[in-house]
Amino acid sequence: MTNVSVVVGGASGIGAAVAAAQEVAGRTVLIWDIVIPCDIVCDIRDPEQIETAMADTVERVGVPDQVTISAGVGHGGPLLDIEPDEWDRVMAINARGPWLTMRAAARVMIDAHVPGSIVATSSISSRLADRTMGAYCSSKAALDMLVKVAAREWAPYGIRVNAVAPGVTNTAMLGGAPLETGWLKGVAGRTALGRVGEPTDIAEAALALHQLDWVTGHILDCDGGLSLHSPIVPA
Q1: Active site residue 136
Q2: Catalytic residue among 57, 136, 187, 224
Q3: pLDDT < 70: residue spans in the chain
């Protein structure tokens, strides 16, 4: 093992929590993001930027053996109204970008004969039919299947691929909505453990998946039990 971690989208939110925990654990961590501060600026919609970022990573710190992909974008809008360009943007960031990043990571691991772990950030929305969230749900469903197929294809090289699936989490994606009132209060009330998730909650799950040597192709719900709520039951 090389003890090198890459966190894609690590400048804020869940990615920042993952990077901070890995640094505390003594790992060498490089953050890729489109905003500063980060170690390498990389827009995962661009294949050339990904390849350059991975080459730069290997040159600076060596081949990573843990890669966490937390970059993503939210989206809301009825299927009847979404513009094709909007759909393509969501898919490019939430599904195509993770595929390109995972592929770049797997290639350098395979070339260097380094077994490794890749963890992507999916969502419980990948399997829940959320009204007005068709593009987002579809992108995360695509990511889930990508993780499973990659896990099968890359297992012979000692590369494990998993995903963590958060529920509603207190990150910038919520747009600063207050937790104590409004719709987020309702979400907390429907969550079995009684609150909205925090980035550190999701980071713990991602780090656990990196450590579980006998787990691959798994999508781990990390939602405090939000997805256990039945829409038929009023409370």
Answers
A1: yes
A2: 136
A3: 1, 174-178, 180-181, 231-235
